[in-house]
Write a structure and sequence with these properties.
The protein is mostly helical and 246 residues long. The protein folds into two domains: 69 residues, no CATH class; 147 residues, no CATH class. The protein is built from nine helices and four strands. Strands 1-2 form a two-stranded antiparallel sheet. It has a two-stranded antiparallel sheet with strand order 3-4. Strand 1 and strand 2 form a beta hairpin. Helix 1 crosses helix 2, helix 3 crosses helix 7 and helix 5 crosses helix 6. The N and C termini lie far apart (81 Å).
Length: 246
């Protein structure tokens, strides 16, 4: 029996772009399935990465895991491939990573540091300010660090008014090995035990102002540079990174 009026459109016709079950466009359904699949794959890759990372940490701790001798890549989305052997090296050397330490310097401190740099360069040593600070901390014993800080604190006590009347000249940041950071912190702790308020910057300022003349400082710094050469910078640093990656 023929029906009159408008005919009813079937739910699915050839070329229809609707999902009859959900009532949403098929391309949206496809995108939803693709997104769910990508999230699942990303979660699996992350679990695999965390599992490998845990094994590397264990291997770096006792050195018995054979994973340290593999060269398979560690895959993880968004992170460049890193071989297991390279990752083990990073884990083992994590305690040797330099720490960036910032100091507050006044004009007297900047002048003392510049004098050391200029004198050492005149002595034939190619040094920067950060290298001089590291060398001075390394070459000075913990007892001498404490003594220099006490002398500076006593000089402040004899002075009327604030400790420093000049403006802050700068906030240099120096890469220090962890053992040198601990050395500064130990001096700060000993000063606090004597009720002398101080911090790392205070100890370094006292050290700079008591730095020896170039005649006595240059030979010691030359030996320090032979044992701890400064890290390459600029193009030299880039070449070193490329050679390590090969």
């Amino acid at each position: 029996m023929a029906s009159s009026g408008t005919s009813r459109v079937p739910e699915t016709v050839p070329g229809d772009q609707r999902c009859p079950a959900l009532g949403i466009p098929r391309h949206a359904e496809s995108r939803a399935r693709s997104g769910a699949s990508a999230r699942k794959g990303g979660a699996e890759r992350r679990e695999d990465y965390l599992d490998r990372r845990a094994r590397l940490l264990h291997a770096g701790a006792d050195g018995r895991d054979s994973a340290c001798r593999q060269t398979a890549a560690v895959p993880f989305a968004g992170i460049a491939a890193l071989s297991v052997a390279q990752a083990c090296v990073l884990v083992v050397n994590v305690d040797e990573t330099p720490v960036k330490v910032s100091f507050t310097f006044y004009p007297a401190d900047v002048a003392a540091l510049n004098r050391c740099v200029v004198d050492l360069r005149h002595a034939g040593l190619s040094v920067r300010g950060g290298t001089v600070v590291r060398a001075l901390i390394h070459l000075t014993s913990s007892t001498e660090l404490f003594a220099h800080a006490v002398l500076l604190a006593k000089a402040y006590e004899r002075k009327d008014g604030p400790r420093e009347s000049d403006y802050v000249a700068g906030h240099p940041t120096v890469d220090l090995p962890p053992d040198l950071v601990k050395k500064l912190d130990s001096a700060v702790t000993e000063l606090a035990a004597k009720e002398i308020p101080a911090n790392r910057a205070f100890v370094v300022r006292a050290l700079l102002r008591a730095a020896p003349e170039a005649g006595n400082l240059a030979p010691a710094v030359r030996k320090y540079l032979a044992a701890f050469p400064p890290r390459p910078r600029g193009w030299a640093a880039r070449k070193a990174r490329i050679s390590r990656a090969r």
